[in-house]
Structure formats: C-alpha cells, structure tokens
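User: Here's a chain of 314 residues. Predict its fold as tokens.
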Amino acid sequence: MNDTKKFAAVFPGQGSQSVGMMNAYGDAEIIKSTFDEAGEILKLDLWQMVSNGSADELSQTINTQPILLTAAVAVWRLWKQLGGNIQNIGVVAGHSLGEYSAMVAAEMLDFADAVLLVRKRGEIMQEFAKGGAMAAILGLDNSAIIQNCQNILANGKVVEAVNFNANGQVVIAGTADAVDEAMAECKKSGAKICKKLAVSGPFHSSLMQPAAEKFKEFLNSVTLKSPKIPLINNVDVETISAENFDAAKIKDALYRQIFKPVRWVEIMQKVAALNINEVLEFAPGKVLAGLAKRCDSSLKGISLGDAESLKNYL
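Assistant: Prediction complete.
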C-alpha cells in the first residue's frame, strides 16, 4: 500500500451484530485475545456470546454495545498486526456507538475504559428505551422525511429524523404511534420502503435525554487523551485533533449524541472534502462501506469484513 495515501477508517454501530460474525477472520489469535480482554473487564464470556449465543441475547443493547466495540477494536488490531500503517489514516469516524471504537483507534480512549463505558451506555439506554420505536425510510428525499416528522410533532406527538445514513436513507424514531403515523405519511409522499427496525427503543431521539443525563456521570469519570488521528464526531460533525483537543467539550458531545441525530451523510461529505476517497470499514459486515458512495460520489467504501479482504487490501 502506498505510504503517502490517506484513507478514512470507520466503525459501525448497532445493527451490525450477528452470531458467528467473527468466524470471518478465521483463527486469528488477536481477535480471540481482544474478546478475552474485554470479557475479563466485564466478567462476561463475550466470546461465547458472539460465537455460540442466541440472537436475542446478542441483540440486547446492554450486550450489543460492548460486543460491537470489541469486534471493531479486534479487527483494527488485526489490521495493524498484518502491516496496516496508521500513518495512512487521515481521519477516523464511527456511526453512533462506533464513535467509541473510533476513539480507541485514535488513542483518545483506553480500550478498558471504552468497554466499561459502552456497557454502562447500553445498560442505561436499555433502561430508558421502553415504549419507543424506530423505522427506516428509503427512497424519499431527506427534507421530505424531516417535514413529515415535523408535521406530526406539531400535533404534540414525538417522532424525529435521527440517523441520516445516506441520501434517501433516513431512520426515524419516537413513540410507537407517532412512528407509525410518520411511516404512513412518508409512504404517501413517495417513500419506496418504510420498515420498522428490530430495536428496543427510540435511540437518538429527544426521548432519550433522561438516559443521557444518567450517563453523563459515568462519562465524566473517564480520562480522554489528545487524539493521535483526527476524529470527526457524530453530533456536531466537528473534526477533533491534537490542536483543538478539549476533553470537556468531547464528553459533552458524547452526552448529546444519545439524544441527537447521527449526521453520517455530512461526516462522509467532510471526509470527501479532505480529499480522502477511500473509506475502510473495520468490522464484520459492510454497512458503512455500502453507504459511502451514496453520501458522496467521490468516495469508495471498502469492507474489511473478513480475513481475506484485510489481506487483499494490505
């Protein structure tokens, strides 16, 4: 790989999990040892859960968050072990929960602290998530989706556009009845697909603010360090670097991230504006790699979703 070439490293959030997903990396010892390290911190057998557990157990937010963080960090470590050069990375970013994986990669956050933090984040979000819903709206202009949600909000019901994943691919969240109403309105407006998501609550909506308040005290107890690689955050689409590092400001952004939208389209557009055109997804699966070009036509998404694709890219 050309040592002067720069790319973006991205890390996915909830929804990328599946039982057996780490099998794609064969018997790489660093994958298993990373899971053992996280399992020891949490006193849980995460490896058993991800390898042979039930899909229900894996999809509980309290488990999903530490497992996906660990999976992403394990792939990142394997990439480095196989010869990946962090000098080639122009910027890192993560989708929602994936922001914590990106922070570990940028050496802003110790892995042990990140594991404990996302376990607590998952626990609190699960506690406050009851009674809400999320749905994916595809094939409708983003502004029309926002307008449909605002019309329903004006009637005193809560539904908001919360994940801007690509142009024409937005996730909405709110109370279950309001989400149903917004889906019907979006269908009338010409949406091709309106699909309820199998999640336990209205993540990234204003309904999650009480969860964020409770999470704040745990965030404040963690030490953050100046990043070795610039990071584009979710909530403000701000580039955090060694030059503008401010731990209190970063923690405030992570607190707000729980009840504010994920602005992935803008994040990818910011990557493109840095003249970076390859987006590498460090995780089993290829959700973010598939979204890259749909956010900005100059971008090429590359999934490092298995051992072969890692070796081929390097």
